[in-house]
Design brief:
- The complex is a heterodimer of chains A (98) and B (335).
- Chain A contains three helices and four strands.
- With 335 residues, chain B is mainly beta.
- In chain B, a hairpin with a 4-residue loop joins β16 and β17.
- Chain B starts with a helix and ends in a 5-residue tail after the last strand.
- The interface between A and B is medium-sized, with 11 and 24 residues.
Chain lengths: 98, 335
């Protein structure tokens, strides 16, 4: 019984650690992304933000895909502010842990 | 009843005539024969002669300089598109490139607006780094995403400072002289700009500003001014782009849908990259529409982001959608 509890605890801690170690991916839908002056502007804002590992722009679908490092998360308001600074409005977003 | 009917017809004819007159006024016909696409070169890739998002072009003598933006390099070709050399590498250090945008050759040097690194990089024409002008910020002499640069004969530079919503005039050492636009405020009136993307300087002393998201071109006179300070009057002499040049975009002749590049040709005419309309438009220095040409885009990716003109009147266009360069000519050249 004692060993079982230790095993369960260790497994739970392992999963929690893995969850914490992985970052988050945000898929942001914005309009008017076809112009590189706009797309590069968004990329530049995110790249200069601490904890952002990568930014991919999908021009055809108007998507900005932001991947963060472990422990770094954004609130929706923070993302809206970043996009507003780049001259855009966030239409919708999805978020998933990696 | 009949009288009312005739009055209605009269009103309708008047309205249609007014609309027709307005349309011909705001959508003029071409004033010269059409341009023909001579050739294209490039295609997506990182090998020499290929591009990953070309965003700037300049011509000097018999060479064409291209900002190969995502490859973080400048590539050089002859006027027929044969590869000659490349220089630059990705990074944030002196001589390295973030995202090179519109280019200018002046005084035997290549000036590169670096959108990511917030400065103007200056190279020799064979690719040796010389110096940079400016740094990141919104103060005098600082930039936030410079999109294009023009250089006067005395070395003074004019920089389209995209996110700072202004065009800065700096002396050759980078010292602030003056600006057009209100720092970090967009607008159509009150001397404000809306995301300026590029500038061009005519030998006559006119500064043309591509007022990007305001869908218009502004022309300022740099002659005259204060003889003691050397600062020109810099007064607005004309503007164009849709009705009253007040940020009304459209696909018709003389209208724009985001202006991303501007240059002055050998005869003083002004060439403008009209990004979302997938074309270059050509105007007299006073803004009279002359011609338009381009390759259609697919609706989401667009084919004309930057433009330059060679001494023989050939027009080179950076085609962002297809990662290539277009070369256009008229049979009867604008020499």
């Amino acid at each position: 019984m004692k060993y079982s509890l230790q095993l369960i605890t260790a497994t739970a801690l392992l999963w929690a650690g893995l969850a914490f170690a992985a970052g988050t991916q945000y898929e942001l839908r914005v309009d008017g992304l076809a112009c590189p002056f706009c797309a590069y502007g968004i990329e530049k804002k995110f790249v200069k933000t601490e904890g952002v590992e990568s930014v991919d722009i999908d021009l055809k679908n108007g998507l900005v895909i932001v991947t963060t490092a472990a422990g770094k998360t954004f609130t929706e308001d923070e993302l809206k502010t970043l996009l507003n600074d780049a001259g855009f409005t966030l239409k919708r977003m999805t978020e998933k842990s990696l | 009843m009949s009288r009312i009917r005739w009055m209605s017809v009269g009103v309708a004819i008047t309205i249609l005539t007014a609309l027709g007159a307005g349309f011909s006024l705001w959508s003029p016909s071409p004033q010269e024969p059409p341009y023909q696409l001579v050739k294209t070169w490039g295609g997506k890739g990182a090998d020499p002669g290929r591009f990953n998002e070309p965003t700037g072009v300049a011509v000097f003598g018999n060479e064409v300089f291209i900002s190969d933006s995502r490859n973080a390099r400048i590539q050089v070709f002859d006027l027929d598109g044969h590869y000659k050399r490349a220089f630059g590498e990705a990074g944030k250090a002196h001589g390295q490139l973030g995202r090179p945008m519109n280019l200018t050759v002046a005084r035997g040097e290549l000036y590169v607006a670096d959108y990511f690194n917030d400065w103007i990089q200056v190279y020799t024409l064979d690719g040796r780094f010389l110096r940079e002008i400016g740094q990141a910020g919104s103060g005098p002499g600082q930039f936030d995403a410079p999109g294009g640069v023009a250089v006067a004969g005395n070395g003074n530079v004019y920089v389209a400072d995209f996110y700072n919503q202004r065009v800065q005039h700096l002396n050759a050492d980078g010292g602030f002289v003056r600006q057009w636009g209100v720092t970090r405020e967009t607008g159509v009136f009150g001397g404000k700009l809306g995301y300026p993307t590029d500038v061009a300087l005519a030998p006559t002393g006119t500064l043309f500003i591509a007022d990007g998201y305001n869908d218009r071109v502004l022309a300022y006179d740099l002659n005259g001014g204060d003889l003691n300070t050397g600062v020109s009057s810099g007064e607005l002499t004309t503007k164009w782009g849709g009705p009253f040049a007040m940020n009304i975009h459209g696909p018709w002749n003389g209208w724009f849908a985001t202006v991303t590049s501007i240059t002055v040709g050998p005869k003083g005419n002004v060439y403008v990259a009209d990004f979302y309309n997938d074309r270059v438009q050509k105007f007299t220095p006073d803004g009279e529409f002359l011609n338009a040409f381009g390759l259609p885009g697919d609706g989401t990716m667009h084919t004309a982001i930057a433009v330059a003109v060679s001494h023989d009147g050939s027009v080179f266009v950076a085609d962002y959608a297809n990662h290539q360069i277009q070369k256009w000519r008229r049979n009867e050249q604008d020499r």
